[in-house]
Write a structure and sequence with these properties.
Elements lengths: L18 E4 L5 H12 L3 E6 L2 H13 L3 E6 L5 H15 L4 E4 L16 H26 L4 E6 L11 H23 L4 E8 L5 H4 L11 H9 L10 H12 L10 E4 L7
Parallel strand pairs: 1-2, 1-4, 2-3, 4-5, 5-6, 6-7
């Protein structure tokens, strides 16, 4: 090594041999995270309410030489959570990583003061209740061996600006994550729990918001409006978030628990 210079070492397979469940893995952040964790050596269980979408991600991983299986999953169904974890343990013998990624925007043209309770509860059920259910089942499976739980929240779990139910649900994920981190530490479980807070990522969920923005007519207009909110000068991609998920799934983040990993292009810096 040349004096005064550091030798750069590139490490591959950062989650070699680990088994990960990723919800909402049929597209977007979940799909990108599934593919990246598999590329880095993990056995990946891809779940999605759209079974065919989960299988498509699984096929992509397998075609690249990775290890993956897919399952159809409604994350609001607590019985299905038990089945998914049980099938994962049967297939791979362990559960090391859970990525609670499935979610909806809850975007609506209905004013807050006219919003029905059912609509509010529908967002909470998918965005927050399902995260509790996943964490509960993961703790049961991990408490004897350890693991990493990664809950995908949002910058809208830290600041206002989205529909109320979305803000509240994602803020709930942030505090639920901290509570679980403290709980696991207190009881001596070697389980880390962290949340990820993406800025606006150009996914179908974001593109569909055009329906609810009166002054926007095209996807290009929507993109430009959102780009202006990010000092970095662009929107995020699913791969930007997947790299953060990989970090939290790997031992590189061994001293992190109860933390927020904000990947937002500067959105919350303004």
């Amino acid at each position: 090594m040349v004096a005064g210079k550091f030798k750069l070492q590139i490490r591959m397979n950062r989650v070699e041999g680990k088994t990960a469940i990723i919800t909402g893995g049929g597209s977007g952040i979940g799909g990108a995270s599934s593919e990246l964790l598999a590329a880095e050596g993990a056995n990946v269980v891809v779940t999605d309410i759209r079974g065919e979408a989960a299988q498509k991600t699984c096929d992509t991983i397998q075609q690249r030489g990775g290890s993956a299986i897919s399952m159809q999953q409604d994350v609001t169904n607590q019985d299905r959570w038990g089945e998914v974890v049980s099938e994962t343990l049967s297939a791979f013998g362990a559960l090391d990583v859970l990525v609670n990624n499935a979610g909806i925007s809850g975007a609506s043209s209905v004013p807050l003061e006219e919003t029905e309770l059912d609509a509010w509860q529908g967002v909470m059920s998918i965005n927050l209740d399902s995260v509790f259910l996943g964490c509960r089942e993961a703790i049961k499976a991990m408490k004897g061996s350890g693991g990493s739980i990664i809950n995908v929240s949002s910058v809208m779990g830290m600041v206002g600006g989205a529909p109320a139910a979305y803000n509240a649900s994602k803020g709930g994920v942030r505090l639920l994550t901290k509570s679980i981190a403290v709980y696991c530490g207190t009881y001596g479980y070697d389980i880390r729990c962290n949340s990820v807070h993406p800025g606006y990522i150009w996914t179908p969920l974001v593109r569909n918001a055009i329906e609810f923005v009166d002054e926007i007519e095209t996807e290009d207009d929507l993109m430009q409006m959102l780009v202006e909110k990010h000092p970095i000068g662009r929107l995020g991609t699913p791969d930007d978030i997947a790299k953060g998920v990989l970090f939290l799934a790997s031992d590189d983040s061994a001293f992190m628990t109860g933390s927020e990993l904000v990947i937002d292009g500067g959105y919350t810096a303004i």
